[in-house]
Amino acid sequence: MVIKKPLGLMIGWLMVVTVWLLSLMPLSVPMDSVQGGDKLGHLLAYFGMSYWFLHLAYNRWLVVCLFIMMGFCIEVLQGMSGYRFFEWADLLANTVGVLIACAIFLLAGLRLKFLLVK
Fold first, then answer.
1. What's the predicted TM-score (pTM) here?
2. Ordered per-residue pLDDT tens for the chain, 118 residues
């Protein structure tokens, strides 16, 4: 199965919307149930979104910058919400996820073969 660019963009934007919604809605379950699980979740979410969009974008450095800024904006909004908190460790995990995606995509050259970007 091959995913063409329009469907790839739709899947990518669904990832972004999901992260925004999950990041800004009130928590009903404590996130400390697994040691470091929250930070790993941040890292994997931002890795996944960044790695996906690096395949689809013309300006790959813009993707990196926008996802790092998105992580910062979400953390600021969480701090302002009254029911979530700004955490530097979350911001760091988000940024590390983006940078790992960048390294794998740009430096190692590993690509998703099923994502057709032309």
1. 0.89
2. 788 989 999 999 999 999 999 999 987 766 656 566 789 999 999 999 999 999 999 899 999 999 999 999 999 999 999 989 999 999 999 999 999 999 999 898 888 878 776 6
Taking CA atoms, 8 is separated from 49, 86, 104, in Å, by 11, 31, 19
Cross-strand bridge partners of residue 3: 115
DSSP letter (8 states) at residue 36: T
- Name the burial class of residue 99, with classes exposed (0-12), middle (13-18) and buried (19+) by CB atoms within 10 angstroms of its CB: middle
The residue whose two tokens read 């908190």 is: 85
Tokens in use for 45? 């979410």
Q: What CA–CA distance (Å, rounded) separates 37 from 62?
A: 28
What are the start-end ranges of the H helices in the chain? 5-24, 37-56, 60-81, 88-102
